[in-house]
Amino acid sequence: NNQVAELATICTKDVLQSKQERDNAYEIKWRDEKIDGLTQSTKDLNEEIERLKAALAEQSVKPTKPQWRPVPATVPVTQR
Fold first, then answer.
1. Is 24 exposed, middle or buried (0-12, 13-18, 19+ CB in 10 A)?
2. CB atoms within 10 A of CB 80
3. Nearest-5° angle of CA 49, CA 55, CA 57?
4. For residue 79, what pLDDT band results from cuts at 50, 70 and 90?
């Protein structure tokens, strides 16, 4: 009777330990996938930052001249 109880305790402990190991493995896998996703997002954002910096630098090099816009009909034209 004592041996049965001892064997049951050992089996229960083994099952719980196995479940704990599976849970840990799943958690590590999930964490690694999350890290991979965040790493890719960071890479994409850094590329976008570089693209925007390049566009801004290109814009600041060009001489900025005012855009010609027709005067709206509602604005009275002053006579000279």
1. exposed
2. 3
3. 100
4. low
Question: Does residue 7 register a pLDDT over 80?
Answer: yes
The pTM for the full model equals: 0.54
Burial 49-74 (b: 16+ CB within 10 A, else e): eeeeeeeeeeeeeeeeeeeeeeeeee
Asked whether 71 and 77 are in contact (CB, 8 A), the reply is yes
Q: Which residue has the tokens 């002053």?
A: 78
53 — pLDDT class (breaks 50, 70, 90): very high
Distance, in Å, from the CA atom of 66 to the CA atom of 72, rounded to the nearest integer, reads 17
Q: Give me the residue label for tokens 């693209």.
A: 51
Looking at residue 59, what is its pLDDT? 82
Q: How far is CA 1 from CA 5, 7, 18, 70, 72, in A?
A: 6, 10, 26, 101, 101
